[in-house]
Amino acid sequence: MLKPFCIQSSFCKTFHTVALVALVVCSLPWCANAENSQADQTSAYQRCLQEKIETASEATTVAIVKQACSIEEEKVTIDGQAREFGAISSRIFQERMQEFDPYVIIPHRMNYVLPLYMTNHINTEPYESYGEKSDHLEDTEAKFQLSLKIPLNSHGMLVEGDGLYFAFTVKSWWQVYASNISKPFRETNYRPELFYLRPLAWQPVGGNAGFAVGIEHESNGRPEEFSRSWNRIYSLLLVEKGNLALTFKPWWRIPEHEDKYLGDPTGDDNPDIEDYMGHFEMNAAYKWQHFEVNFMGRQNFRTLRGAFEAGFIFPLSGRLRGYMTLFNGYGESMIDYNVSQTRFGLGIALTGFL
Question: pLDDT digit string (tens) for 206-240?
């Protein structure tokens, strides 16, 4: 009776020996750890998908869920290219997980409350028609800003990851420390805007880039001699690398006709506003652990007027964060667009720069 060839072959005997050794080696701890590590990574990703699918709104797409879970790996695919998340792109993808939830408000610009906001020069000139009351305005007041945005599309419009948004920002300056007058809101500015935002294939220094174009109106909503307003069309270039983000925002002011008579409601309330506010704004923000810093600058190179602002966010307790800001220059508010001031504020940040 013939025996199988494999049993008689020296090759098969060697193969059996190698297979036995491999089986023993794979039973050792490091082989098991490798398999467990791969299984853990897979299960962690699956757990993330399951968790976010359960909590996401009905309008959230599968692509957004996958992108949100890939944040843990700090990578995402855009235009077929693997990208590392930066501070802003990470925030955008997190927001998209909740932006159609009716119980969630998505922030736009920073939200903050400054109970202490001091100036070296309170601008009393616009209020002189109130008589002696203008003399009782205090150099120290309170300030707050609330800003939110609403997505207008649930799927990509031109490219994957783009979006059309409506945003609204309101800022108020409150004379809460003015004891000789009725603690009025000295100034309130309203800023609605419509803008389109999309990612770019450009990867400067291994980072990410984005582009936005929009139209915005800004005014203080007041009549006659107190009225200040302008309308702008702007573009915005955004570049990020890790926790560093840079933006460049040039704009073009939509022209208004001159006043036909004093107090003309359809005329230009502030025809020289660009002489003080300039034609562009630049921002730089950096996040380190629970700390954030931001720098803003704008300039008119013809008149050599502009402004500079620095902000610092730091942890206090739990989700509560402190906010400190320093401003110098023109345009701190619409009523003060042509007045140079130095201001310092201290308060609470409800949302950060990044």
Answer: 899 999 999 999 999 988 788 999 999 999 999 99
Is 1 within the bounds of a domain? no
Sequence-ordered strand ranges (E) for 88-162: 106-107, 112-119, 140-151
Q: Which of 51, 70, 92 is the last residue of a domain?
A: 92
pLDDT digits (tens, 9 = 90+) for 138-182: 999 999 999 999 999 888 889 888 999 999 999 999 999 998 888
Asked if 217 is an active-site residue, the reply is yes
- 90 labelled catalytic: no
- pTM for the full predicted model: 0.78
The catalytically annotated residue of 70, 89, 147, 219 is 219
- The residue from 134, 154, 172, 217 that is catalytic is 217
SS3 state at 352: coil
Count other C-beta atoms under 10 Å from residue 212's C-beta.
18
354 falls within a domain: no
User: Same structural domain for residues 20 and 51?
Assistant: yes
> Who wins on pLDDT, 339 or 82?
339
User: Distance (Å, rounded) from C-alpha 301 to C-alpha 110?
Assistant: 28
Domain count, the chain: 2
HSE, side-chain direction, 13 A CA sphere, residue 222:
16
Same domain for 128 and 59: no
